[in-house]
Write the structure tokens for this entry.
Amino acid sequence: MRGFVKWLIGGWIALVIILAFAWAPEMTRPNFGTGTIEPWPSFRIVFFHVPAAWISVLAFTVSMLWSIAVLRKPTRERDDRAMASAELGFLFCSLALITGMVWARNDWGAYWNWDPRQTSVLILLLIYGGYFTLRSAVAEPLRRSRLAAVYSIVAFVTMPFLVFIVPRIMFSLHPSPIIQAGQGKGSMDPKMRTVFFMSLAGFTGLYIWMLSMRVRLERLAREVRAL
Amino acid sequence: MAEILLKSLGRVFGERRVFADVDLTVEAGERLLIRGPNGSGKSTLVKIMAGLLEPTEGRVLYRTEGGEKPPEEVRSEIGYLAPDLVLYEELTPMENLDFFARLRGLPTGRANLELLDRVGLKDRAEDPVGTFSTGLKQRAKMAFALQNRPRFLFLDEPGSNLDDLGRDLVRRMVEDHRDPDAVVVIASNDPEEFRYGTRTYELG
Amino acid sequence: MNWARGAAAILAKDLKSELRGRAALNAVVLFAVVTLTAVSYSIGGYGITAEIQASLLWIVLFFAAMAGLSRSFVVEAEKGTQTALRLTATGAQVYLGKFAFNLLLLLVLDAVVLALFQILLPITTADWPLLVLGLLLGSAGLAASSTLIAAIVAQAGVKGALFTVLAFPILVPVLIAGIGATRKALAMDGLQSAGSEIQLLVSYTGIMITMALLLFDHIWKD
């Protein structure tokens, strides 16, 4: 069964990649300088960049929820899950940041622009970094799980503030919310939308699969140590 | 009515298990002596009973007129004296006691001065605790432990660093707690202190 | 009102200890002086805009806060006085008392930094009420989070940069809003223009204090 899931996810994502390049039409955008419509090939990165960002936020939320569970009853299993989800969140966040930087370099000429969304993703990465630094600083497992859980919850509460700061800043280089819920979904061609949501499903499946593996790995490692 | 119930108590630190399955009831009027070799977990057990440490298995309950409660809810009736208890060294014993009195909702000033007198620290009441010898610090800690007239008194190696006069103080402290409605728990390896207990529990 | 009396007692005790050692005050003020001097030395010759002035002010405040705000908790853990506090005080009393102490420390720092600014990188025109309000609210936000993080760090038992590493991402909203409000005060944009910054600072501080009160007991459990 486990092997089957692995091939399913791998196959699905491979399909998404192929469709993203071969099936989804190329995105266009108006060139305000020449007044013509020009092709925007780098837009394809959105199929991978945005799902990565969304999954990193999902992973953060899941980690926070398990952290609350840890505080209610500090078991190793709950702590493992909170940590594993944070690890994956860190991974997907890095992916989102890197793909974002590549896209930025291509479209706007610079890897980094202090664009509000870029900054939020960076701050999220720093929060993850803090979480792991804290974990490595505490030797005793019970105390480690509690302190990390508290930090995770506090950091999660900070996120809305960062998200609300974003709109307050006037000028943003970031492509306007084409995917925002309930708003302007029409700017994306239906084929593109299909590929996008297929990618999102693939990323979610990947996250869930990797999470269960990571949790299992941690449990096995603990059993080995106890021998 | 004052009882401490320990139910299936266990504590692990990382991979190291200190003890497991401790089932015990300390009844009102008893003075429990906890004995055991170094590292057997005497201090850990006392800390868990006093509510300073959480057990990894089982629980501690205090049975009073108000029902059965965890240690955190009975804190105002708990007194604790141990090597890891430290007072503020830059403050005088009076300032220390006044501070804790404010936190505990107890009177400040004269009541604390009398308390210091009882432990023989009246002459040093206005010197910072940092200038005290370890023996005098221990006496200051005794004053702290007794300040709230605790019904549940925990003493971890109370006679350590004390001279004969100091040990006499400990003896008096224990005897003053010879109350049918009070509980005393002593953890010690000092044979002299063994006789303070009405009952013994061996660890390790 | 027991929590208020207990918190006040802890504040008074911390102030008394501080006056006998001045360790936190020294660290914080000295850091601010050194940083500000170094910065103004390197850029003072050039004219600096209101934006840069605002940013500099908050950078100095932030780093000075990182230098000193964890002391009140770390010292209790290091010296071992935590046990006595755990036996006599509730989590709310400890957090609120130390929050008040850190806030006072920051307010003193604010005054010192503003004074130094006037000497080294003078502020010529400013909407002073807005400037002061921004500093006050920002300091409250800084203190609220820093005190909570300091409690965590003190339990982690490791010194060094852990405090800054944990605190910085949490404090970003305060920094952005604080810098925004200060910038608008220096540009004389008027109180209304800084409405969202002020709203953010107030709600942030409120939420952080609430979180601290909810979570503190878990930090001090063992």
